[in-house]
């Protein structure tokens, strides 16, 4: 077996597993954040559920570690009160990112399993642990039963050959992988990375690369643990550990070899992390702000690199550089090693440990017309604000903040560029939409089709993060697709009973349940896509909302507004009234069971 099969089999009671097997997996560590945590509490309370093993269950408040947003603050307090009643440990706003805490505190070690409301929980692949971001129902189920159902993914093996260039950081490696595989070529795969250079990767570097598995569509990026990783995990967990490795005859669906010596310093253009270009192609692009942090680049090595570049220098006039360490431990190392002093003397805004730029309530957001260069893992439109976000390594971001424009460390000018004004944008009015309840569960549906001919539609396009604090499904429909260019008025045109047909990797990105529930709120009957983001697909199935995939339906010559019939049991898409038919996926037993109940948490 390969690594993912070994970890899952040991947690499901099977001697051997194969891709496609659906199993119940025991979860060693269960986390809910301030984003999603309140909905987890609501699911547990509404369904009268208990907590299995409270000592393995945690709240981590990392999205809004300042408590600066009233709705986030309300959700945090709701979780605190629940935790007090149920004996659950809260890692509050002064502690940092939950997945990093799991590594630092030794909760997760090689071979363990972890779930979180964080879509980057697969960061645990850095220590060869299985981590998954999941939606509110999944986490509630894990908290109450100690396990969740999971489909064993196929695996891919990537070998990095050659010698790593001296100017290539871990973030550059992640961006080069995105350049090679895009947002969906690794969709649904567990990825293992090998090579002589990878064995030298530090923990911080592994975290950076594993963190961006989500942006590649992968279930997880796993690194076989090195001696240093094993020593670190033994020290943190205070346990004797056994190294987990793939068998010599392990089976992989694909094997790739890449020459790391040819990797270049890259920048991801605004809108898509996979839209990467050599940094030279955007050299001297004027910036308004810069951000260093996130679960991808908030580690102590990132802070040291940044401090080295900023020492005895000043951030360019009119540019704001925001830095947020990943955890309080990293923050204190920065304090004790004089790094905070370097930051402050350079004119940096330093925030509490946490996620920062990716979350709507923390420093790192930008305004309309603002150009930001960021070490974050995502730059989807609207994700980090209303401006443009370029993704790059900490070295490039720090150098750019000094220059006032995008540049590299070796090309920082003696005099920084001057500031340019930013633009403004008019707010968009929203209207209320009533939630359409489902009283029957038909095994085939008919409806008017909407063709959304686009790949990689992410959850920020479907349901933007500025609405994340909404928990009432009746309010969600009005915001469906309002951040997808060309479809901003979808909620005003859609009718109950409509069906959506779209492209690859629908629902990429965040773990937010609202990106599913907004369609339920509108009365959409089904979404048919070439493929779905892994978390999105689970969220839909667990909500009892029909989602199915297809390979080729071109023979139907579908147009917007035409009527179709979808047979869930037999996997058929039928164009009406001429009855042309195409094969699609059909409900698995798990999906059918949850669909009939209407929700994963209903008995």
Please explain how this structure is put together.
The protein is α/β, with parallel strands linked by helices and 603 residues long. The chain folds into 3 domains: 260 residues, Aconitase, domain 3 (2-Layer Sandwich); 145 residues, Aconitase, domain 3 (2-Layer Sandwich), CATH 3.30.499.10; 154 residues, Aconitase, domain 4. Helices cover 28% and strands 18% of the residues. It has 19 helices and 25 strands. The strands form 6 sheets. The protein has a 7-stranded mixed beta sheet with strand order 22-21-20-19-23-24-25. Strands 4-3-2-5-6 form a 5-stranded parallel beta sheet, with helices on both faces. Helix 3 links the parallel strand 3 and strand 4. Helix 2 crosses helix 3. The two termini are 35 Å apart.
Structural class: alpha/beta
Choose one word for the global shape.
Answer: globular
The Rg value, from CA coordinates, equals: 23 Å
Count of DSSP-assigned helices: 19
Query: CATH superfamily of the largest domain, please?
Result: Aconitase, domain 3
Tell me the CATH architecture of the largest domain.
2-Layer Sandwich
Mean of residue pLDDT values = 93
Distance between the termini: 35 Å
DSSP, total strands:
25
Task: Report strand order across the widest sheet.
Answer: 22-21-20-19-23-24-25
- The name of the CATH topology of the largest domain is Aconitase, domain 3
User: Biggest sheet, open or closed, and with what strands and sense?
Assistant: 7 strands, mixed
% residues in beta strands: 15-25%
Q: What is the level 1 CATH name of the largest domain?
A: Alpha Beta
User: Which ranges are low-confidence, i.e. pLDDT below 50, for 5 or more consecutive residues?
Assistant: 430-438
Domain module count: 3
The residue fraction in helices comes out at 25-40%
């Amino acid at each position: 077996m390969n690594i993912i099969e070994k970890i899952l089999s040991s947690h499901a009671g099977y001697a051997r597993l194969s891709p496609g097997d659906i199993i119940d997996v025991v979860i060693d560590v269960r986390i809910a954040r301030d984003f999603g945590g309140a909905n987890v509490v609501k699911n547990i309370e509404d369904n009268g559920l208990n907590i299995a093993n409270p000592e393995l269950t945690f709240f981590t408040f990392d999205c809004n570690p300042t408590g600066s947003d009233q709705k986030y603050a309300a959700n945090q307090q709701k979780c605190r009160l629940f935790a007090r009643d149920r004996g659950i440990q809260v890692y509050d706003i002064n502690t940092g990112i939950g997945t990093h805490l799991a590594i630092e505190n030794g909760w997760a070690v090689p071979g363990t399993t972890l779930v979180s409301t964080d879509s980057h929980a697969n960061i645990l692949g850095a220590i060869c642990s299985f981590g998954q971001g999941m939606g509110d129902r999944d986490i509630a189920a894990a908290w109450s039963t100690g396990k969740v159902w999971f489909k064993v993914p196929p695996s891919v093996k990537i070998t990095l050959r050659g010698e790593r260039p001296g100017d290539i950081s871990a973030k550059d490696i992640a961006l080069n992988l995105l350049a090679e595989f895009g947002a969906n070529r690794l969709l649904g795969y567990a990825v293992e990375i090998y090579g002589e250079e990878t064995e030298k990767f530090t923990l911080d570097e592994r975290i950076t690369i594993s963190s961006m598995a989500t942006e590649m569509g992968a279930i997880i990026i796993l690194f076989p643990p090195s001696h240093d990783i094993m020593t670190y995990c033994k020290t943190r967990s205070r346990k004797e550990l056994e190294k987990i490795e793939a068998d010599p005859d392990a089976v992989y669906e694909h094997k790739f070899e890449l020459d790391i010596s040819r990797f270049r310093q890259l920048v991801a253009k605004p809108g898509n992390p996979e839209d990467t270009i050599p940094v030279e192609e955007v050299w001297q692009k004027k910036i308004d702000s810069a951000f260093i942090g996130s679960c991808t680049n908030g580690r102590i090595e990132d802070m040291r690199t940044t401090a080295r570049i900023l020492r005895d220098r000043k951030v360019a006039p009119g540019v704001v550089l925001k830095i947020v360490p990943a955890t309080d431990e990293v923050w204190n190392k920065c304090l004790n090693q004089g790094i905070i002093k370097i930051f402050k003397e350079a004119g940096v805004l330093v925030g509490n440990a946490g996620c920062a730029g990716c979350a709507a309530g923390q420093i790192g957001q930008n305004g309309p017309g603002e150009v930001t260069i960021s070490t974050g893992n995502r730059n989807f439109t609207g994700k980090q604000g209303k401006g443009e976000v370029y993704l790059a390594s900490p070295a490039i971001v720090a150098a750019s903040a000094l220059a006032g424009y995008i540049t590299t460390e070796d090309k920082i000018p003696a005099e920084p560029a001057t500031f340019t004004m930013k633009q403004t944008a008019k707010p968009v009015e929203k209207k209320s939409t009533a939630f359409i309840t489902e009283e029957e569960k038909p095994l085939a549906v008919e409806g008017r089709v909407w063709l959304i001919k686009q790949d990689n539609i992410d959850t920020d396009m479907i349901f933007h993060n500025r609405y994340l604090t909404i928990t009432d499904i009746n309010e969600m429909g009005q915001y469906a697709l309002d951040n997808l260019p060309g479809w901003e008025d979808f909620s005003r045109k859609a009718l109950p009973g409509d069906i959506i047909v779209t492209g690859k990797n629908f629902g990429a990105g965040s773990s937010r349940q609202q990106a599913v529930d907004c369609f339920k709120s509108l009365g959409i009957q089904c979404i048919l896509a070439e493929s779905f983001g892994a978390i999105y697909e689970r969220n839909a199935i667990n909500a009892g909302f029909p989602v199915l995939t297809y390979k080729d339906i071109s023979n139907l010559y579908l147009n917007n507004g035409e009527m179709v019939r979808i047979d869930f049991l037999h996997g058929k898409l039928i164009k009406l009234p001429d009855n042309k038919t195409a094969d699609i996926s059909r409900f698995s037993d798990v999906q059918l069971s949850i669909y009939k109940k209407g929700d994963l948490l209903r008995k």
